[in-house]
Amino acid sequence: TVVDLSADFRLQEESDYDEWYDGHERPELLAEAVYALPELNREELAGADLIASGGCNATATILGLLPLVEDGILDGDEQVVVDLKVGSSEGGAGGGEAASHPERSGVVRPYAPTGHRHEVEIGAYLGLDVSFTVHAVDMIRGASATCHVFPGEPVSKGDLWGAYRGSYEDEPFVDLVAGGGGVYRYPEPKAVAGTNRAEVGFELDPGNRRVVAFSAIDNVMKGAAGQAVHAANVALGLDETAGLEFRGLHPVGAP
């Protein structure tokens, strides 16, 4: 079993690689690859030979929106606007002026206002047309997705609780954090740093018929290496949590 952490097999259409990347040298392999997000593809991952790790921004967004799609609250015709705040490690090991501490410190910098290639990844797996903007912020690791959606039919808080619990109540690495008390009452990257966990949540704005969905991950764990290990565990029939039990660098709520 091969788990590929690059973008080479995340998409299944050769035309998407022609449009968003620089083409693809082995398009005949695209149909064999399984997207490495067990919350989305657990059955397909079992026994898979080629696994494609998802992009960190796409992972955060998919986890935030997936319950709304699975429950039928979103059917693909709605307006979806996603705002991402990401840490400097998302830029990879290459570095560069924009990632250096003197330049990065204190910023909230739009760096991909439109045309981010993770848009097509989200659309491919959720069937949604997403408008997507990414900001670089003064953070090393972490991704925070705030998703504004406008369902065609009215929804209640109860509908949202039902959707998110239905999707995630049995998931070992997804915590539902939705409007409780205290500092960490919505998903927060600091609370999941160093872990394979994702926090997801929501809020309802009935006056504007808007649902705000939140998701927070560690981009180098749930958005990359941790996701790869989780997917490999599923593919090989191992305990899904094997090697991924670490409670994190700031273990909020840990015993």
At the fourth CATH level, what is the homologous superfamily of the domain at 55-219? Dihydrodipicolinate Reductase, domain 2
Strand order in the largest sheet? 5-6-4-7-10-9-8
Low-confidence stretches: none
Q: N-to-C SSE series?
A: EHEHEHEHEHEEHEHEEH
Question: What percent strand?
Answer: 15-25%
Radius of gyration: 18 Å
Outline the fold blueprint.
Blueprint: E1 2-4, H1 14-20, E2 34-35, H2 38-45, E3 50-52, H3 56-70, E4 80-86, H4 101-104, E5 108-112, H5 118-126, E6 130-137, E7 143-149, H6 157-168, E8 174-176, H7 189-192, E9 198-205, E10 210-217, H8 221-236
Parallel strand pairs: 1-3, 2-3, 4-6, 8-9
Antiparallel strand pairs: 4-7, 5-6, 7-10, 9-10
Describe this structure in words.
The protein is α/β, with parallel strands linked by helices and 255 residues long. It has a domain at 55-219: Dihydrodipicolinate Reductase, domain 2 (2-Layer Sandwich). The protein is 29% helix and 21% strand. The strands form two sheets. It has a seven-stranded mixed beta sheet. Helix 2 links the parallel strand 2 and strand 3. 42% of the residues are buried.
Keywords for this entry:
7-stranded mixed beta sheet, alpha/beta, 255 residues, 8 helices, 3-stranded parallel beta sheet, Dihydrodipicolinate Reductase, domain 2
Task: Summarize, please.
The protein is an alpha/beta fold. It is built from 8 helices and 10 strands.
